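As a representative case, we now present a protein record of this kind.
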Amino acid sequence: MTTNQAFDMPARARATAQPQRIEHSVVRELLKVLLPHPSGLRRWSVMRAIRTERERASRDVPQKFEADIERVFRHFCTGTETSQCHPADALFYRPKEKAGEVWAIFPDRAKAWLETEPLGARDLSPAAGHSS
């Protein structure tokens, strides 16, 4: 969205577009971390990996960083009280056979989600975010 397009949008539409864009960005970050680990990673490892990637890319790490990541995870996670997606459409889950707070993905659903997102495939390539 260009700056001119943003000003042409009604204020209410602008207010909802930004959080959705941020949410989808966080989903991509979660998928990037979890795709190589289909059996899951501990929550702490997920947070550390995303924080490290953001710092390496000189991106903002807000004070509410962990709360934002967890909110998005729960939103797209099956079996949570805050999930707003149908269980068949959930991207994430918590493996019951694992002790502690482990986060995992449904790889096929994650790849399908990325294919529908305009930047999804590019964000997961090894060269993503690097310029020569």
Notes: The CA atoms of residues 99 and 116 lie 33 Å apart.
